[in-house]
Give the backbone structure.
Amino acid sequence: MSKIVIINTGGTISMAVDQESGVVKSQVHHPLHQIMPHLKPYGNIEMDDFLSLPSPHMTPEHMLRLALKIENLLQQEEVKGLVITHGTDTLEETAYLLDLVIHSSKPVIVTGAMKSSNELGADGPANLVSSVRVAANQESCDRGVLVVLNEEIHAARYVSKTHANNTATFQSPGYGPVGLLTKKSIHYLSAPLPRMHFPIQQIQSNVPLIKVVSGMKPEWITYLLGSEIDGVVIEAFGAGNVPPLIVPVIQELINLNKPVVLVSRSSRGFVEDLYGYEGGGHQLSQIGVIFAGGMSGPKARLKLMVALETTRELSILEQLF
């Protein structure tokens, strides 16, 4: 039988509601260990309590440690796939960093839960069973890191948490799921996506994420010029436009060889060098801003951080995006 390793990192899936205070807390004993008997039909299952962190506590350094651990496990011939349980707040970021760093054809699945283990309708056990099923499925190979919740399979590069409370929160805006689960089957809806691999061993880049708003003042971001940053990602209006007053700051950052990557603050669509007015996408492209297509801000930030560990050349970074 296939050996599937489950790596637990914490999050709501590992927590329970305290009956007296009503708050959700971590548990001494991971509740997912109790459902191990339900996983036996799908393979030889091994569970590793690697971390116990609420997902807002996760950092890119934690994510890279996890990626390197996964790489080592996947080199073992008997390991056929991996499942990572994770808190939902930063799940999409961890999944995407893993997708950028891990170089393996074997399935790597990330899952979580919106309801804690002792709530009515807790979704953690079902999501874990679904994830193990996907990890054990031969068709899941060569698809990069996948996110499985609510009987849907999503690509790490596209998936986002879209609702603060609903169990159907994970969606891929503009793309949809790459696969679906039924009680008996797993159905993939598209061919495997091409992947980009960054063989890094550390992640030390300092990259902030800035969201633009109407009436934005340049002094709100001029502090970046004197900060020890390696680049910046800007969530722009619409198709890639910013308030005109901050353009000189952007220009100065680029002059300092600090890459400026542009995404849209909209949840769907692409940034383009379209508008010709001051602060419009065409002007930004002319001064050297890098356009990140349809990526979200958090994922563009992680990609820039990872890419900066391999190159500081603005022209190469632009090609990578």
